[in-house]
Design brief:
globular, 447 residues, 3 domains, 2 strands, mainly alpha
């Protein structure tokens, strides 16, 4: 029986025979782009790593290192829990249409077919995790040994994350239970670090605990690649395509639409009850019901309550209000789903009737109430009286600006710059909302 290596060599040879000039040109262009990317981005990465190793970045000094260490551990565990669900939405091992039809339907060794994709994911995850660990240790003003240990911890956790997701993909499990356990453990760890002074972490023991198990997990995940069926490999193809298009067009709505459709298909059905009241009262009732059905939004809202208290123990007091503003904005955004739906659908507004201003105000009630409640619960961390007014206004204003943003217009005039053709109007559309948030943060700092 032929091997995967022979098939790949034959495909490359057939491409050269059928289109010799175009194939060589495409190959040379690909080599040129890879070398250019390695020279530019690799150089930037090397300089950044050297800077983080030799000299810490300029910024506020961490006043309590054990708290920062345990917060790092809690956030890492919390991030693992959330990333498990995110990776399982994409696969993580994905096979597109041509690859699935022409190669996976053959009797070739499936592990050899998928091995290259798997190892690339492990290598990329290890590099990204190591860089995040190095950046975190630099922010904590750790010494050289601490930075090396933090880098190894981040790299090991990221590689283990990919391996665990592949094992869950092979078993057909959605990973919700494991994700929930890790998320709860991460929140409890971070919460205990915020409200209780913990002891310092023995870093060598932690490194051994988070580096050795991922090695066995990666080996086990590579062994089960041959048992991945076509349904598991094709499940995340639509999400991957939507993500590529959303990144190319800078429109995250292309991705969130498919993610929301998947979520509601997984729920399957909900209890249907008639709406009470007329017009705006019924719309408000529907928006409240929509918010209560989105349990993940409440979990995010509640988990972010810890961030101002953590900032109060780690950074100077003048920056705590800015952290409160940013976290309140993130906590409120999921509750503006009804506002986004109304603003992006003109037929829906015409069918509901009434003025656009009243429709917008009706669907701003829920985000405003959640912003005010979140600010009141986190106000002891800031001690800033004006934050009770500025933070909700900034968070709700950002949500309103993003929800009422029209579709991106790519037909504006372009300016030739050393970095290529740039559309000034396109950048103006991108900063709609973030510019308002930056202005509110500046007002906080100078009051």
């Amino acid at each position: 029986m032929t091997t995967v290596r022979v098939i790949r060599a034959e495909i490359r040879a057939a491409r050269l025979r059928s289109r010799p000039v175009q194939a060589r040109r495409e190959r040379n262009d690909k080599i040129y782009m890879v070398l250019l990317g390695l020279l530019i981005y690799g150089g930037i990465l090397v300089q950044a790593v050297r800077r983080m190793i030799t000299a810490p970045p300029v910024g506020p000094v961490v006043t309590n290192l054990p708290v920062a260490q345990w917060l790092f551990v809690g956030c890492a565990v919390l991030g693992l829990g959330l990333l498990i669900r995110a990776l399982l939405m994409f696969g993580p091992v994905v096979a597109g249409g041509p690859f699935q039809f022409w190669l996976l339907s053959t009797p070739l060794n499936r592990r050899s077919l998928l091995g290259r994709r798997f190892w690339w994911m492990v290598v990329i995850a290890t590099i990204v995790g190591g860089l995040l660990g190095l950046a975190s240790s630099a922010l904590l003003r750790a010494d050289l040994a601490g930075r090396l240990l933090s880098t190894s911890v981040g790299a090991g956790l990221a590689a283990g994350l990919v391996a665990v997701c592949v094992l869950l993909q092979e078993s057909g499990k959605d990973g919700n239970r494991l994700s929930t356990v890790l998320t709860v453990v991460g929140v409890l760890t971070a919460g205990s670090a915020v409200f209780v002074t913990p002891p310092a972490i023995d870093l060598p023991i932690m490194v051994a605990a988070v580096v050795i198990p991922p090695i066995f997990a990666v080996v086990r995940a590579y062994q089960v690649l041959g048992r991945l069926d076509r349904a598991a490999l094709a499940g995340g193809a639509d999400m991957l395509t939507a993500t590529r298009v959303a990144v190319s067009w800078f429109d995250i709505g292309l991705f969130t639409g498919i993610a929301a459709a998947r979520k509601w298909r997984r729920i399957g059905r909900v209890a249907s009850r008639p709406l009470r009241g007329i017009r705006y009262v019924a719309m408000l009732s529907a928006d409240i019901r929509r918010a209560f059905r989105n349990r993940a939004a409440f979990y995010v809202w509640a988990g972010l309550l810890l961030t101002p208290y953590a900032a109060d123990r780690l950074i100077p007091e003048v920056f705590v209000a800015t952290v409160q503003l940013l976290m309140c904005t993130i906590a409120v955004m999921p509750f503006a789903a009804g506002l986004r739906t109304i603003c992006r659908s003109a037929p829906l507004r015409r069918s509901l009737g009434g003025s656009d201003a009243w429709l917008h105000l009706t669907h701003l009630v829920v985000p405003s109430a959640m912003a005010v409640a979140w600010t009141l619960l986190t106000s002891p961390a800031t001690g800033f009286a004006l934050a009770l007014v500025i933070v909700p206004i900034g968070a709700v204003g950002f949500a309103y600006r993003r929800a009422t943003q029209p579709s991106f217009d790519y037909s504006g005039a372009a300016v030739d710059t050393p970095f290529g053709m740039v559309q000034p109007d396109f950048f103006r559309q991108l900063i709609r909302g973030p510019l308002l948030l930056l202005f509110v943060a500046a007002v906080q700092l100078y009051l």
